[in-house]
Amino acid sequence: MRYRPLGSDPADPRLGRFVPDDWEHVERYPLSALPEDSRPTRRPVVIGVNWYSAFDTPKKDDTSGEYFIAQDGVANLGHLRGGHCVCLEPGGTPDTDAYYAFYDQGKEGACVGFGWSRCMSLFNQKEYSARWLWDAAKKRDGWPETNPGDDNGTSVRAAAQVLKALGDVVWDPSYANDDWHAREAYKPDLAEGIKAFRWAKSVDDVHSVLANPRADELGAVPLLNSWGPGYPHRTYLPDAVLAKLIGEEGEIAVPTDR
Which of 16, 76, 77, 180 could make a disulfide contact with 149, Cβ separation 3.0–4.6 Å? Predict the structure, then answer.
């Protein structure tokens, strides 16, 4: 499998989000098609976007005290390294230190499973088997090259479809050392999934759903990365950079049934 904008495999295996081969899902089911009073607010958003070298090293802003990536803007993003999936944190229900520690994808291309599972944890205050979701999405994404047990990534859309059709798997400590063979026997619970989802197509859409006052104040969105303690718990991405990423075939998923 190749990451389409690169034309090759990402050098960093953690960058495992792939771009769908069609854009029908975004065009047919945009968030903007919902009446304003039906659109979710104060909800997490899951994004699958291009990942640039400037995103690798967050820097603490002296004025706000927050960590930022790409604070110098779209002209200074460095080189394209691949694709990544992360959850954006809403207002009102901040991510916990426990989730920060738990959702560490290691060196695998499992970011889509981790980004969506982090989202479900913010909804339900439970931990989920992110690697099960990663495996299940690869069965559904339409690419014959992506299969459970390999290190290939998948699309944000495929994982959303799994959560809608099958639900999710609540984490059990006995799963800690399981491989993909064992995960094949896990039983998802439909009640732990989502019933509907839409796609944001603008930065304004994202801020409206997050309803995060700190994000609005900073003109940036808070990423909850899955790269462990070597990456800050909460890292802000400027709105202008997010707009660029959306325009580069970014998938911006919004669960709308909560």
Answer: 180
pTM of the model: 0.97
User: What is the spatial distance between Cα 118 and Cα 126, in angstroms, rounded to a whole number?
Assistant: 9
Confidence of residue 98 (pLDDT cuts 50, 70, 90): very high
Contact at 8 Å (CB) between 97 and 154? Answer: no
| Distance from C-alpha of 204 to C-alpha of 25, rounded to nearest angstrom | 20
Q: Residue 190's CB: how many other CB atoms inside 10 A?
A: 13
Cβ burial of 143 (10 Å; 0-12, 13-18, 19+) is middle
Beta strands (DSSP E) in 26-74 are: 45-52, 59-60, 67-68
- For 24-255, CATH gives 3.90.70
pLDDT of residue 2: 85
Alpha-carbon gap, residue 51 to 15, rounded angstroms: 8
Cα separation, 145 vs 158, whole angstroms = 14
Domain range summary for the chain, segments of one domain joined by +: 24-255
Q: Which one-letter DSSP state was computed for residue 122? A: H
CA 196 to chain centre: 17
Q: Which residue in the block uniquely carries the two structure tokens 């691949």?
A: 82
Question: In angstroms, rounded to a whole number, what is the distance separating the alpha carbons of residues 144 and 227?
Answer: 27
Residue 130's nearest CA partner among 115, 141, 109 is 115
